[in-house]
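Shipment paperwork, digital attachment
Item: protein structure file
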Amino acid sequence: MTGGPGKPAGPESGFLVKPAAFINVTNQMTVAREDVFGPVVPIISHNDVDEAAETANDTVFGLAAYISDRAREAAGRPRAGRVVINGPRDSLTAPFGGFKQSGPGREYGARGPRECLEPKTVPGWE
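Attachment content:
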């Protein structure tokens, strides 16, 4: 739909790619199956919420999911650490992290600092 090969105009150094959005994607395509880090989004359209939930959960990853229609019905269905409805709204008070191979750790919110702690038990210390 947009984007393409090459670096974006501007920065002369760094590992940067042009933002890209792919349409007419199926869940069997590499861009839909692999955890792509970058300004890349595969768009998969569905006819109903059941089909969308099945596709969303047919992956070994689960960092985030984006929903743009029938949100109240669909939001609880993806096995993802964050489900965004109708656009990216972030809160530093909400935990951020993934499910499955996207990693169980959490950042931000009350759970965030716990990821940095290593509790130790010392019996007999008075």
